[in-house]
Amino acid sequence: VEQARHTFASTDPEGYARTCDALATVDLRDRAASLTVPAMIVCGQDDAPAFRDGATWLAGTAGDGTVHWLPGRHACAVENPAKFAELLAASTLG
Q1: Angle at CA 22, nearest 5°, toward 27 and 80?
Q2: Which residue among 1, 29, 68, 94 sits deepest, i.e. has the most Cβ atoms within 10 Å of its Cβ?
Q3: CA-to-CA distance for 10 and 12, rounded, in angstroms?
C-alpha cells in the first residue's frame, strides 16, 4: 500500500489531468474485437458500475467471457497482489 501511495502521490498532476482528458475523448470499442493477444479481464467487485460494466463488456468482446472479480475497487490488483498473482500464474497468457 505504501508503494502505491507513493506512486500516486508523486504523479505529476498536469500529466495526470491530460491523461484523464485524453481518456475522456477516446473511444476504441470498435477495435476491441480485433485484439489478437490473449486477455484476462480483472475488475474490483466494488468498483464503480461503469468499470464493472466495461469489464463485463470487454470480457465478452475481446476475451473468453470471463471476468475475474477481486475484492476492492479500481486498484484491486494492487490491493490484492497475492490473488492477482495467483490468477496470472494459473492463466494461459504466458
Answers
A1: 85
A2: 68
A3: 6
Which grid coordinates belong to 75?
A: 486498484
The secondary structure of residue 40, as a DSSP letter, is -
pLDDT by 10s per residue, the chain, length 94: 788 789 889 999 999 999 999 989 999 899 988 888 888 899 999 999 999 999 999 999 987 889 999 999 988 898 899 999 999 898 876 5
Model pTM? Answer: 0.77
What is the residue type of 35? L
What distance in Å separates the CA atoms of residue 82 and residue 5, rounded to the nearest whole number? 18
End-to-end CA distance of the chain: 27
